[in-house]
Design a protein that fits this description.
Helices cover 41% and strands 13% of the residues. With 290 residues, it is an alpha/beta fold. It has a seven-stranded mixed sheet with strand order 3-2-1-4-7-6-5, with helices on both faces. The protein binds guanosine-5',3'-tetraphosphate. Guanosine-5',3'-tetraphosphate (G4P) binds next to helix 5.
Amino acid sequence: MAIQWFPGHMNKARKDVAERLKDIDVVIELLDARLPASSANPMLARMAKGKPRLMILNKQDLADPAVTEQWLAWYRARKQTEALGMDAGERAPAQRLIAACRALAPTRGGLEKPLRVLICGIPNVGKSTLINSMSSRKIAKTGNMPGVTKNEQRIILADDFELYDTPGMLWPKIEVEEGGYNLAASGAVGRNAMDEEEVALELLKYLLVHYRAELAARYKFDVEALDGAQDWQALELIGKRRGAVLSGGRINMQKAAEIVLTDFRDGQTGRITLERPEEWLEWEKRAKIL
Ligand code: G4P
């Protein structure tokens, strides 16, 4: 079963975002550094085409630093695009964010032409946390301003710098199968839309290739115990190690899956990234063929 998840309200969000984009100079897209491509919203990429873009790889504290560097370089190689890594521990993210946006739109700025920036991201990517950490500055709820959607936030980060929060929810739209699994592993997909055991097995398949030492360390195996292990064998070993055992000694695979997913989401398994740029290109190519 591939993850198929595309909850409602998307048309409304699409219209609101299109309306807002008209007078926006720079689009910031917040991505999850553990799954940058999967956590991007393909609809937004199409709608914001031609606008300068700032990609923020958020939650970088949970991601593999070497792979984050690969992704930053990958995005920076695009036209009119800057990329920054961030995490909730950063004290003053506004400064870096403002500087990057100004560099992307050098002809804007000053009180006559304030720089207008839209910040977007799928739910759970850390948008509220980032906005809150910047909101020692003035946050204006702009429900009564013409042309600004009710509940839309406008954050004045400098006299000539306005940051708009996305009107409505931008849900992920899953176009690549592996991306669906990665979103599910990260916790961005509703529980009802996925089979946790299947998602944990896909996660383990990836970890066995790229993060075997981290997996062994987390569950206190010798790395050799995982040599040649299949995903389901690793899940059984973890279940056994963690006491997820049913009467008769069978492994409780559901429980074991929950342990694997929770540990990954909390960063207990280590700093892990579930996709590399070259892998993503392969997956995308395959998704187009299928
Ligand atoms: P959203 O507005 O985009 O939906 O996301 P939100 O800021 O609510 O963040 C979703 C979860 O991600 C929160 O955890 C938040 O603490 C966590 N988070 C945000 N930024 C970072 C980061 O840079 N690093 C890490 N490690 N976590 C981050 P939660 O479990 O839902 O809530 P709580 O732990 O804050 O109580």
